Amino acid sequence: GDEAPTGDEFMMKIGSLCGLNPSNHWIDIIGVKDRVVSHSWHQDTGRSSFFFDDAAPSSTLAHNDEEMIKGVNQKENESDNNDNDDGCNLDKSRYTVMLGFPIEDQYTGTGVFSHALKLTDEHLAPVGHNENEPVLFEGTIDERYIVRPSFSFGREILRYRDVDTLHSAPDVVYRKSVMRFM
Questions:
Q1: Cα(137)–Cα(39) distance, rounded to whole angstroms?
Q2: What DSSP line would sit under 103-125, residue for residue?
Q3: 53 with 143: CB under 8 angstroms?
Q4: Sheet strand arrangement including 165-168
Q5: pLDDT of residue 49
Q6: pLDDT tens digits along 28-73
Q7: CA distances in angstroms from 70 to 40, 73, 113, 119, 165, listed in the order given
Q8: Distance between CA atoms of 112 and 56, rounded to whole angstroms?
Q9: Beta strands of the chain (E only): which ranges?
Q10: What is the pLDDT of residue 31?
Q11: What are phi and psi of 96, to 5 degrees?
Q12: Residue 61 to residues 13, 128, 160, 174, Cα–Cα distance (Å)
């Protein structure tokens, strides 16, 4: 319509959801369709802020470590000062934003967005880890911790901090595309 944003305005608005000084990286992800795939749990960068030196001194993701993983409350924790429990200012964080496109119109359900799980603590990439390489998790995740975000009208965008989550392709992909902005 006449009031629709231009392509540039739309991309700037989506990009603004990534937080201060985003990496300006975006990719169109399709995935394997019509078959169940094994999860490949990872973080995209293991970085949370606009500072490029926020990598951990040394760090590995634990295998089957229930102390590190907790169930996810579907509602985001909000506070007046935008600090999380560790005092990290969320306004200065870098976020990953996913814009989903399902296979069919009027779709409601899973398979458009990556599956995710919430970590109990931030997990930063090791010092020296290339920012353009994922931080891989080599282990299994108990099903009770996996969140399978549902796509629907009004829920076309998923936003999270990479250091707070692990994510993987859906069990079964049901999308034309998902655009990832960081």
A1: 10
A2: SSTT--BSSSSPEEEEESS--PP
A3: no
A4: 69-70, 115-119, 165-168, 42-43, 135-136
A5: 66
A6: 787 777 778 788 899 988 887 644 444 443 333 433 334 434 333 2
A7: 18, 9, 20, 6, 10
A8: 32
A9: 26-29, 42-43, 69-70, 96-102, 115-119, 135-136, 157-160, 165-168, 175-181
A10: 72
A11: -100, 135
A12: 33, 16, 19, 29
Look up residue 108 and give its two tokens: 């409601």
Are 117 and 145 in contact by the 8 Å Cβ rule? The answer is yes
pTM of the entire structure?
0.74
**Helices in 2-147 by DSSP H: which ranges?**
7-16
Residue position matching structure tokens 């390489």: 133
Task: Write the pLDDT tens digit of every residue in 78-124.
Answer: 333 344 444 455 556 788 999 999 999 999 999 999 999 999 999 98
Cα dist from 12 to 8, 15, 53, 69, 166, whole Å? 6, 5, 26, 34, 26
